[in-house]
Amino acid sequence: MAEQSPRPRKAGAFDIRLIIALLTGVYGAVLTVMGIGFTSDADLAKAAGVNINLWAGLGMLVFTGLFVAWALLRPIVVPAETDTTSPEAGE
Amino acid sequence: MLVLADANLRLDASAIDYVELAFYFALVLGIGALARRQVSSSLDFFLSGRSLPAWVTGLAFISANLGAVEVMGMSANGAQYGLPTVHYFWIGAIPAMLFLGIVMMPFYYGSKVRSVPEFMLRRFGKPAHLVNGISFATAQILIAGANLFLLASVVNLLLGWPIWVSIVVAAVIVLSYTALGGLSAAIYNEVLQFFVIVAALVPLTIVGLVKVGGWQGLVDKVTGSPGGSAQLHSWPGDNLTGFGNSFLSVLGLVFGLGFVLSFGYWTTNFVEVQRAMASKSMSAARRTPIIGAFPKMFVPFIVIIPGMIAAVTVSEYVKDKQILLDGGTAPSGVTFNNALLLLMRDLLPNGMLGVAIAGLLASFMAGMAANLSAFNTVFTYDIWQSYVKKDKPDGYYLRLGRVVTTVGTVLAIGTAFIASNSGNILNYLQDLFSFFNAPLFATFILGMFWKRMTATAGWVGLVLGTASAITVWGLSQAGVLGLHGQGTSFVAAGTAFVVDIAVSVAVSLATTPKPDSELAGLVYSLTPRESLKHDDTGENAGWYRKPGLLAGIVLILTIVLNVIF
Q1: Whole-number Cα distances in Å, B416 to B168, B409, B424
Q2: Stretch 6-35 of chain A: residues touching chain B, C-beta under 8 Å
Q3: Residue A81 within a domain
Q4: Which terminal CB of chain B, N or C, has fewer other CB atoms within 10 Å?
Q5: What is the band of A61 on the pLDDT scale with cuts at 50, 70, 90?
Q6: Does residue A59 sit within a domain?
Q7: Do B47 and B380 form a contact (C-beta atoms < 8 A)?
């Protein structure tokens, strides 16, 4: 059981980095818009004067940019010579 | 958590917050569906085909543990005890995680076993294997139920759904992605969950710190509050251990928490080890817990500090902290368990609030999914395939894995109601860990380093170790021992460890050991040194991929953190 015989593997490995970037990107965009356009004085007072939606939103957008850059610069490599796909995400 | 009916905990969520939540859940289910396309054999389903990169398994390693207990429980501890809570991270986790990566992982990964019970089978034979498999599967279902109950009780608080509806809905969501995509889906979601939790807690911490006037403001406020400046230094932590003597307190922290409980949890708990086993090479497997240790070091800052801020800013705590510290019931109806929720209520505007709620729910689902994915592996490989239906084609076990996941979820709904009857969830979980993990760790460590230990000793030690922990628990429930709270589980774990070692040594000396030839790769002294090494070339090359060096960096940083705080 420990060793499998060669079997067809799909190379269509999805990249978790892009899914993480999708989530933080959407959250970042929503929060930034909320922070610029829909922050009342009451909201500001609640968060001790910090426009937290705006700052958290911008922070998430920066993070998204970094993750997308990482995924693009070090894409998943599928070794051609083996029978197993290897969702390599370069560290 | 049950007595909050009268506390005003309903968060003021608006449409945009619900949209954010819905988006998160859509992604979670999407990952399950995507991961399904990669599953073509049972090894894919249960161990992700041993193909994941180390940073993914490392983050999943932390995230599987960053469940309800960690987030709610540790922020509650932060509110109650302050900085000494960091011991649960810096003493109670980091050393054990490094030990797992450096010393134990070569045995686990190198012997190509698929689960911790399977390692028991190789080392001690069938009886120990069966005992371990059954007790582990039982424990997972009980713990999954506790996680499910916590998840549901937060949904109940936040959204006002009845508790049983919340339990069933939460169970269905976790089930759908674990059953579809197996361990890959659980692990990928854990990685996603990690980032959502961080995205939720970092802004909360920053706003909180601004609110109290920075770090100095927090120090001033905590010094002036009930509990005082003892809450600002991690050592000696008298208030946390409940020991009156600083020396005993340090001793208790280092040996009780730092050794038996923490090593037992991190090095033999298949929920954790499974994440490392899913990585794609020995080097990656050894790096998994070590990479996980980096974020683990800093989790206390976004969990404990918000708790401390809540204790000095939230109006209910400002009024009632002294009463709560004295063990009384606060007139406002809050408990320390509510610290994080109350801080979110007070500080976060709509928008950020939705992210924070998503983070909390994510953390609770992470815990339950981890339990389920470990349960289905052990049940399928170690119980069903080993003792009930052998030699079926692989597709049979893959289908069985999906069915078992469903059955496990249904059972967890049942145990969620058991957990709901327990007054304090944290204590309930600690008790379970002391029953199952402490004796297992004793058997493991002895079996790995003492080749004389026999097969009979393996299972007898486990059974009597668990029995002794349950006895201690029973006696203290009956009021005979005069222990209360988490002290019970510390003593139970210690007893189980000592009983297991003593029984194993005694039985080993009276029975015949396995021949040396069968123990290569399983016992330290009989394993060729080179087979414990890993490949240092190709994608495992580079100084930043050396497990030993990474572990050294973690160790130094941890010591620095201990000196500063």
Answers
A1: 10, 10, 13
A2: 7-10, 12-14, 16, 19-20, 22-24, 26-27, 30-31, 34-35
A3: no
A4: C
A5: very high
A6: yes
A7: no
